[in-house]
Every structure is written in structure tokens, then in C-alpha cells.
Write a structure and sequence with these properties.
Shape: flat
Protein name: Poly-beta-1,6-N-acetyl-D-glucosamine biosynthesis protein PgaD
Helix content: 55-70%
Radius of gyration: 31 Å
Number of strands: 0
Keywords: Membrane, Transmembrane, Transmembrane helix
Order of helices and strands: HHHHH
Number of domains: 3
Largest sheet: none
Number of helices: 5
């Protein structure tokens, strides 16, 4: 008896992942996306090259867009402006990061920001609900790799909230 070889198409994951660019065929899509990517890079690189070559690479300023003093002044003004903006934003970002780390270390980890009894009641409620709806936890974790939800097993809207409120009323 021969063992059945599983194909890629047999995998349940294939029903969830779809990207036509990486599938066989679809040459019009691939050509269009590659051309759009190249065009986008060209549109981005040409102005950068043009600006750098005119301002830094050319010794003959006559006839160039920056041959007049106002153009040079404007370029150097924007250079300073963006440099200062970068430094200020870096200081603000680093400051907020340090404050957030301090707040997490000295406030969040030391003070309980949730109700312990309520959390335990919710855990127990959801465990009981999952066991009644989908079976024992050991079976769900160790024997089931993929689970397809049938329409009758779909959860109702706000069903978890209803379960939480019902158990909190009885347990608290």
C-alpha cells in the first residue's frame, strides 16, 4: 500500500492565504506591478539626484536653478530647518520613551490596574464556556490542528460580554 503524499493544495492554510502575484500565471498583474514599482523609484530618485547634483556637484553656477543667491539661501534654510526639526523630534521621542519606561517600571508593575477577583471570575467563565462549546482543553490543544467553524458554532454578537456579566453577578 502506498502512502498518500500530501499536496500543497491539501493544506487548510491555503484557504486563508491568497496572493495572485506569487501564484503561477497572472503575467499581466506581475508586469504591471513591477513596472509601477520601477516607475515609483524613478519618480523618487530623480528629484533627489537633481537637487544634489545641482547644489553640491556643480562648480558652474551660471544657468543653474541655484545660480541666484535666493535659491542657495532657500536651500540652506531648508537644510537648517530640517536638521533642527530632526534634533527636536529626536529629543522629544527619546524623552517620551524614557518617561514611558519609568512609568511602566515604577507605576504599572507596582500597582494593580485591574480587579483580581473580576479577572479570575472572567477566566473561569470563559473556560467553562469554551469547554461546553468546543470540548475539553486538552483535546483542543493537543489533538486539533485546524478547526473550521460551522455557521451554527459561530458566536453571537456580545456573547462573551453576556457570559462575563452573568458569571460576575454570581461569583462576586
Amino acid at each position: 500500500m502506498r502512502a498518500r503524499r500530501s499536496k500543497k493544495s491539501d493544506s487548510p492554510v491555503n484557504g486563508y492565504i491568497h496572493d495572485a502575484f506569487f501564484e503561477k500565471g497572472h503575467w499581466f498583474l506581475k508586469t504591471r506591478q513591477v513596472l509601477m514599482t520601477i516607475l515609483s523609484w524613478v519618480i523618487m530618485i530623480i528629484p533627489i539626484y537633481w537637487t544634489i547634483s545641482i547644489t553640491l556637484g556643480s562648480k558652474h553656477w551660471k544657468g543653474q536653478p541655484f545660480s541666484i543667491p535666493e535659491g542657495k539661501d532657500l536651500f540652506y534654510f531648508f537644510t537648517k530647518f530640517f536638521a533642527y526639526a530632526f534634533v527636536i523630534l529626536a529629543i522629544i521621542t527619546i524623552g517620551f520613551t524614557l518617561y514611558n519606561n519609568w512609568y511602566t517600571k515604577y507605576h504599572v508593575k507596582r500597582h494593580a490596574i485591574y480587579d483580581e477577583k473580576r479577572l479570575l471570575a472572567r477566566r473561569e467563565a470563559i473556560k467553562d464556556f469554551y469547554t461546553s462549546k468546543f470540548g475539553e482543553r486538552y483535546y483542543r490543544r493537543n489533538n486539533v490542528r485546524y478547526y473550521v467553524v460551522t455557521p451554527e458554532n459561530n458566536l453571537e454578537i456580545k456573547s462573551i460580554d453576556k457570559i462575563y456579566s452573568k458569571f460576575e453577578a454570581t461569583k462576586l
